[in-house]
C-alpha cells in the first residue's frame, strides 16, 4: 500500500511539477566532498527529472552554510539547507527554517528522524562510538572495548585520540562522561572532571582532522579513539584493521538534517526535495554511497551494505540523542573552558 501511495505521489508530481515548475531553480546548500558527489550523481538527476526543477548545489560545511543564512537574513538566496543536527537546531532557533509540509513519507521514519520543532528532519545518521585497531588488540590479548569508561584504562596511555569538543564526536564524549558521572548537558561539570583527571593521561592528541586521525592509526601511534561509524567504515574500507563498537551505555547519534529556508522563493520545491531524500531509493543511495544510516524504516540493505552503518530498529533504538538546545546555549563557554583546562 505504501508503495502505491509513493507511486501516486510521483505520478502527480510529474504532471504538476512539469507543468508548473519547468523553469524553476532550487538552490540547495549542503556538504561538499563525497556527499556532494552522491547528491549530484544519485539524488539530484532523479529529482530534476521527476519535478521539472533545476537544482543548483552550493557546497559548504555546516558552519559555512549557517553563516550564509545569517548573512542573507531577510533576502535568502538559499531555498533548502542541509546541516549537522547541532547547527540545524541553531538554524531553527534563529528562525531560518519553515514548518515541514505534511507528506506520507514522514510516517515511515524512525523516531530518531524527528526534530521536535517540526521545522527540520534528520534524513541520515552516523553514530559516535569507539574505534580500535583490532590487530593490535588481538596481538596483546586485549578484549574489545565495551564501555565509554574503557578509554580510561591505563594500558591505552598515549594511545588514545579524542576529537576536541568543537567537533561533534568530542562533544558527544564529554556529554557521555558527564551523564555517566551523575551529570549531563545541564550539569557538564562531571564530564570535565572525568577528562581532566582520568582520560587526559591516555590522550595522545585531541585531533579534529579525519585525515590526521587516519594517519595516527596507520602509523601505529594510536590504537583507540572516539570517532564516528562513517569515518571508521571509510578507514576499514582501505584494508586497515579498524573495528567499531557502540558502548553498552549507548552510542550517540550524529544526524544530518534538512529544512526549507524561511522566505524561500521555491518553498514547495524545497519541501518536495526533502521528501524525495526520504524516499527509499534516495535513502538507499545515501546509505551505500555516502555512509548514512537510513531514517526510512522501509529501506532494506543487504548484509554487506549494512557494514559500518547504524541500521534497523535495534541499532537505531540504541542511539542516544543529546540536548542540542542546552548545548548550543553553552557551547562557546564550554569550548573556552576545554581549551583552558583539558587541552592545556
TrEMBL record:
Residues 1-21 form the signal peptide. Keywords: Signal. GO terms for cellular component: outer membrane-bounded periplasmic space. It holds the Pfam family SBP_bac_8. SUPFAM superfamilies: Periplasmic binding protein-like II. GO terms for biological process: thiamine transport. InterPro entries: SBP. GO terms for molecular function: thiamine binding; thiamine pyrophosphate binding. This is ABC transporter substrate-binding protein.
Amino acid at each position: 500500500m505504501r508503495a502505491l501511495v509513493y507511486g501516486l505521489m510521483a505520478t502527480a508530481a510529474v504532471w504538476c511539477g512539469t507543468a508548473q515548475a519547468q523553469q524553476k531553480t532550487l538552490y540547495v546548500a549542503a556538504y561538499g566532498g563525497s556527499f556532494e558527489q552522491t547528491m549530484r550523481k544519485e539524488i539530484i538527476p532523479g529529482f530534476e527529472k521527476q519535478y521539472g526543477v533545476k537544482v543548483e548545489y552550493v557546497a559548504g560545511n555546516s558552519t559555512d552554510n549557517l553563516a550564509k543564512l545569517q548573512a542573507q537574513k531577510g533576502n535568502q538566496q538559499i531555498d533548502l539547507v542541509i546541516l549537522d543536527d547541532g547547527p540545524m537546531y541553531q538554524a531553527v532557533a534563529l528562525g531560518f527554517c519553515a514548518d515541514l509540509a505534511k507528506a506520507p513519507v514522514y510516517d515511515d521514519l524512525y523516531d530518531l528522524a524527528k526534530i521536535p520543532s517540526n521545522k527540520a528532519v534528520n534524513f541520515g545518521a552516523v553514530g559516535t562510538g569507539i574505534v580500535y585497531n583490532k590487530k593490535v588488540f588481538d596481538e596483546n590479548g586485549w578484549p574489545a572495548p565495551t564501555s565509554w569508561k574503557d578509554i580510561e584504562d591505563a594500558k591505552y596511555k598515549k594511545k588514545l585520540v579524542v576529537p576536541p569538543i568543537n567537533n561533534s564526536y568530542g562533544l558527544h564524549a564529554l556529554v557521555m562522561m558527564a551523564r555517566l558521572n551523575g551529570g549531563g548537558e545541564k550539569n557538564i561539570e562531571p564530564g570535565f572532571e572525568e577528562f581532566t583527571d582520568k582520560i587526559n593521561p591516555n590522550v595522545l592528541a585531541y585531533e579534529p582532522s579525519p585525515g590526521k586521525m587516519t594517519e595516527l592509526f596507520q602509523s601505529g601511534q594510536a590504537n583507540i579513539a572516539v570517532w564516528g561509524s562513517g569515518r571508521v567504515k571509510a578507514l576499514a574500507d582501505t584494508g586497515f584493521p579498524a573495528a567499531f563498537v557502540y558502548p553498552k551505555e549507548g552510542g550517540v547519534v550524529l544526524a544530518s538534517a534538512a529544512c526549507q529556508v524561511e522566505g524561500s522563493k521555491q518553498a514547495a520545491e524545497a519541501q518536495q526535495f526533502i521528501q524525495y531524500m526520504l524516499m527509499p531509493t534516495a535513502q538507499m543511495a545515501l546509505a551505500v554511497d555516502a555512509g548514512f544510516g537510513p531514517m526510512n524504516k522501509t529501506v532494506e540493505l543487504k548484509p554487506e551494505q549494512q557494514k559500518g552503518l547504524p541500521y534497523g530498529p535495534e541499532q537505531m533504538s540504541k542511539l542516544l540523542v543529546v540536548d542540542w538546545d542546552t548545548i548550543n546555549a553553552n557551547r562557546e563557554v564550554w569550548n573556552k573552558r576545554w581549551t583552558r583546562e583539558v587541552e592545556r
